[in-house]
Every structure is written in structure tokens, then in C-alpha cells.
Predict the structure.
Amino acid sequence: MDETVRPETLQGRRGDVVDRPAGGHAPEALLEVRDLVKDFGRFRAVDGISFAIPRGKIIGLLGPNGAGKTTTIHMLLGITTPTSGRIVYFGKKFDAHRQECLQRINYASSFNTLQGRISVRENLQVFAHLYGLKAPGARIKELAAYFEIGELLDTRYWDLSAGQKTRVNLIKALLNDPELILMDEPTASLDPDIADKTLSLIEQARSGSAVSILYTSHDMEEVNRICDEVIFLDHGRIVAQDTPLGLTKRILTAQLKLTFDGERGVVEAFLAQQGQRHRFAHDYAVVIDTTEKMIPNLIFGISERGVWITDIEVKKPTLEDVFLRIARGDGHVG
Amino acid sequence: MSGEHVRAILLQEFYITKRTLEVIMDLLFTSLMTVVLFGFVSRFLVGALNASSGSYLILGMLLWEIIRVNQYSLSVGSLWNIWARNLSNLFIAPLSLHEYVIAHMLSGLLKTVIIFLLIAAIAAAGFQFNILRLGLLNLTLFFVNLTIFAWSVGLVLLGIIFLFGTRIQALAWGFIFLFQPLTAAYYPVAVLPPALQRLAYALPPTFVFEAARRALGSPDVNWPFAAAAFVENAVYFGLGLVAFILMFARSRNTGQFARNEG
């Protein structure tokens, strides 16, 4: 991507400054969800969730398959009707002001595609008219140049590669200069290079305008990279909500790997005496599941017993560990 | 209602139609081949039997295309977006349901007018059957009544597709043919058994086809038949619209609308 192209494109027509309120004031919520419930027959897919998305923030919506992420997104987009609860965009109830709200938001997903039989330009023209753009041609050209697909505008959508389609989907999602974009796994099925570029584009979009993003993904690294805050869903409920760092800090366990020169039996006896869960990688290396607080005691205790520690490796919990805990049923983290 | 939104959907319909061989084959090619086929069959029947039975066939065929093309366009138009996984993108934009439906009706009407003019010209030039024999007022009334009936059926089928998904998509292009024998498109209603005749007169196109056959002899407007067709159409269209709105709401409620593309 041409880093020097600094888009008017993404600067937004509402003004260049990201509306980050001064300290002490609660950030303006573009979207407020209150007690949202969705039942499919007897199955409760979304179970009374409440959250808000402030202006200029990227909020990750994570959870294992079947957690209720996609159903939530579909309700937020108005293509699935909630059983109960309230969705408020820009201070207005979504069900009463559907079109007005949809004019100011947009959506990008790797699961939806545009019309494959017609060209990229034709697809974008349709959406430009739907969003009532004054000069659709110029806007499409401007965004296409920014996303480096200017030469593909007259190519049929279905002839594009996965990465090119993602860029076109992102252009569609930015056409109306939205204040909030809902993104449902926008990098799924992309190769790492294109996924990285896509993330950079999202980061640029965020830094260049006041856009907020609700972002679902299974890739914890990218969530860690771009999200200001993460909401974990499990069985339709919010089980954790914090910054990525805050969430990982809630896991108190860490993994300590010690490589040593000495008797394996001595180490084994000491760890058993301390009640520490462990396994030997080989005769001279042990992996201990412990707490961060215990690490100095364990190192000191083993050294004290005449075992020479040659290498220490501490693995702190990652967002992926949080995800795995929730996915494996330990829904409440910390 | 936003004209810009309607224009957007019409634009998409234009792009899809122009670039999709299936649409061209289903609408234009099928209509052209049918008029040629029915033209020759009519010519044969006129020679072998009498002029009126031959004319009935080509007349019925020309008028039937008004129903078929209108209904196909309304129901199948949405399937192109479902197949492309683009339908929810449209409804995520600030497009209302009535704007979407009106745009598809207008698109269907436009296609029908173009195809009807073409096949009517072929019937006149190639098979000496001039549809204007019916009289312009008659023709307009027939066109309007058949279009409204096609829209009513199209709306119900579109609702069923939204509600049950693409597994019943064949109805979109096949179901309409149920009405072809019932509405006596190619023969007088009297040919039908009495029970079916009563059913036939419960369908607006029956009045149109009957009136059209009579108009071959005299272009006077059969006002009682025109009125009966309009009244029935008003009921069918009203019911079709309510059924469509309810099915759309139900598909959003069950999650099927979003799942249609999943």
C-alpha cells in the first residue's frame, strides 16, 4: 500500500479530527445495545447482552462457534429481528429509525460478497446510489485508487482474487463515509500477506477518521493488534469484557519451563511437594503450570536442592489462552 | 420513498440482465422461440381447422408472456442476489422493503414491455397476427390486469423464497405454469370441466383471456370482464402484499433471511 496517500478518502467528510473526548467525560456511544435477546424456538442464541461502542474505538466481538456473534451482528444490521432488547444508534432506536441509522453505518464480511456477474464499478455504483452519494464516480475512483484496485474497476467481481474481493468489500463499506462499521471476520480465507494489508487498511481507516468498528474474528493476534477492547461471548452471554491486555491479566497462571543440570528425581519430588502441576519435556527440562507469584519460589527452591538451572523460559497467557478457556467451558475468566 | 434507491436497484437489474446469459435465455430467447413455435402451430391450425382456433393459440401465447416475464423478473431477480450472497448487503444499506419491491416490479414491467413489443412485432410480421386487432384500450386493460396478477404471484413466491430459502427456488420459474391451464390461456373456458370453470373464474387472467378471444371478433371493451378482473386483482394483490410482508417479517424473525446466503 502506498503509505503516502493520505486519504481525504478516509479522513471523512464530517471533519478530520477524531472525536476523542477529554479525560473525565464518558466517550460518546455510537451504538448502545441493551439486554439484547434472540431466541430461535427454544434455543436462546443471544442471552441478554448489553454493551456500547464509543466513537473512534475498535471493539472486538469474540467467542467460539455458536457463541452468538453472527446472530448479534445480524440483529445490529436489522436482517434478523431481536426477540427483545434495545438497539440504539446515534441516540436513536434502530427499529424506529432503521434507514436513518443504516445511512450512517456499514458492514464488511468475508461471508458476503457483491454481485459476481457485474463489474466492480457497477457494483459500487449500485451501492453509491443506495447511500445517496452526490458524486458516486469520483468517490469510487478515489477509494479504488487508495485501495490500489483502480485498474480492476471494470473487471467482473467474480474474476477477482480473494484479496481483491476483500478490498472491494472494504471500499463498499467505506463508500458512505460511515461512522460505524461492523466487520464480520473480514480477513477469513485471506493469505497472511493480504490479511496483514487488510488490517493495516483498517488501522488507517480508524486513524484517519472518527470511524468506530465492531470486529469479529477468530484470529487472536489480529484482535490483539487492532482492538481497543474485547467482548467475549459464550453461549449467548458476555463472559468477559476488557482491553486485550486486561483480559490476559485475568488469567493468573503462567507456564514456566526450566532446563537444568541435575537429578530429575530431585526436581520431581520438590514440585510434588509444592503441589505444582508439571510434565518433563525430557530428562533435563520440566514445564510447570504455575502462577506468576510462585515463579521465584520455584526457581529458588530447585536451585537450593543442588540442581543447576541452565535456562528459564516464562510463557505469559495470551488472548488465545483466554479464548481457549472460554471455548473449553471455563467461561468466566478471572 | 427514495427515487434514488429505486434507481439503484433498477441499475443493478440492468447490469445483471445485460451481463447474464441465463436471464437473456430465460426471458428473451424463450419468448422469441415460443412466438415462432406458436406462430407455425397457429398457421397449421388455421389451414387444417379454422382461423379462430389458430389465432387463439398465438393470442394466448402473447398475453401469457406478460404474466411470465413480469413474474419471473420479480421472483428470480432476488435469487440472483441470494446466489451471489449480496441480498443482505442491499438490505444493510438504507433500502426499504417497499423501495426494493417497487424497483423489481418496475424492472419486470420494463422487460415485459420490451419483450412484448418484440414478440408482437414478430407475430405481426411473420405470422400475420396483429395484436392491435384487439384495440389499444383493450390491450392496455389486458396488459395492466395480467401484470397485476403476475406481481401478486411474484410477491407470494418471493416471500416463500425469503421464508424457506433457495431449496424451493424452482417455484420461482415453475409455479406460474400452474395457472396456464387453469386460466384457459389457449382455449375457451368452456373446454374446462364445470368445477374447473368455477375455479378459472376465480383467477383474473381468465377474464382477460376470454375477453381477448372475444375481442378478436370485435374490439369493443368487455367492461364486465375488465371490472371482474380488476376486482379480483385488487383482492389478490392485497393478499399477496400482506403475505409477502408477513413472510419477510417471519424470515427475519427465524433468522432465515440472514441464513439464505450462509
Q: What stands out?
A: The mean pLDDT of chain B is 92. The two ends of chain B are 30 Å apart (CA to CA). Residues 3-259 of chain B form one domain.
